[in-house]
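Sample entry was shown:
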Amino acid sequence: MSKIAPPVPRVKSSSAAPGIENIPGDYLLILAAGNFPAGKVLAHELRSLVQSRRKSKGTHAGSLTPATATIAGKLVVWADWDAAASPFAQQTAMRKAFEPLLKECPGEIAIVMHADAGGDECASLAIYVAAVNSQYQLGRLTSKKADGHAALHTIHLFGAGKSFSAAHALAVAGGNLLARKLALRPPNDLTPARYRSDVAKLAAAEGWKRKEYSYKALLKMGAGAFCAVAQGSPQQDAAIVHLSYVPKQRTKHLASISLVGKGICMDTGGHGLKSAKGMYGMHEDMSGSAVVLGIVKAASELQLPVAIDAWLAIAQNHLSPAAYQPGDIVTALDGTTIEVVHTDAEGRMVLADTLTLAAKLKPALMLDFATLTGAMIYSLGTRMSGVFSNEADLAQRAIAGGVESGERAVLFPLDDDYDAALDSKVADIKQCLIAGEADAIYAARFLSRFVGKVPWIHMDLSANRHEGGLGAVSDDLTGFGVAWGVRQLEKQIGQ
């Protein structure tokens, strides 16, 4: 296993649960469906307490209001399971049920399931939530020794079906952890050069093919939009990295998908310099590329029958005498001339040339991920992310995938009458509007120009960071997009 990717816990599963005193470890979560016979569950007194609390507050079983107690020397959490609740509600409730246990930083944890129907779904979700929150020191750099365990290493599962497999839950959790670990690295550590080196190590460990288009090579190719952003960095270590995954067992007709991710390792805004408040945390502006890596990692772990080309636009947006300026006119890789309006709209610039490269392979589907606009956060907050698509059926698939994965997506318009505002008097197109209204839509319209006729979904990652956690994830940095992206791969395979 690559050291770049955090490990996930191992799962030991058994269909029957022993007496509570014989359950391994000191930390136990008991889950039961609402219709499961009361006399057949462990710690049924706690169940009665949960149900009485729920009735007094008028909440539904999907809220999983946990009750805690110490029984047989173990910290026990008891919670109801509602199979009818939405996946997002289930994830949120499961996270809250786990929190009292995971705050103790245990090395191992036990889960007991009580459900006649839907038990394996509940078990899979429980494994996913435990695994995605299993790295207690994720992103933390300190000279102090950790109190207790640094990570959860073993999950004991009781009550799942005999054919239950935790593989899917662990693979998606591993992809999420990888994306978050990369995005949490400070900008003096995850420079473009080091990022490229780590991607190379990850690709070698996972068996992916890799090709890099360096800054100098991109200049010669005519990728003026990408290079305009990259030229402000004195290191000139920017690159577009192309990774290819194919399953070991190749079928005759593999679905072909391209994933594109924005990888700005530090965004100062360039000449449109951000404020101190606006610049803090901008090392996370490479999260789109981290999400792409997380998706490919999960697909590779599961050996999904799909061919994936991943394209990472890795650069920094620095302020220097060489940095691009408002009013510059640059020529993109496809020959489009672009009038630069605001240097802090760098994401759409690096993505323009990267999408052009990806579209040349004519994939059956292209997905791009980017922490692209503040306008999307103003529109939605940080609980959901916005999506755009150039095909109506894909748009509906994007929304359905958000419901099913628990990473909720909201569809925004991509109508072509917005293009009139991007008309330039001196170039083929303006990069953006100076006023900034509807910027998420204008950014999507700008990107659509470089996609051509390839079926395409663009995700503006407004839910990349949510204070206090979101859905299954307890951390502020959510890894949003990995589970949604894996679901889109599965849907394409189903097609």
Observations:
- The chain is about 35% helix and 20% strand.
- The mean pLDDT is 93.
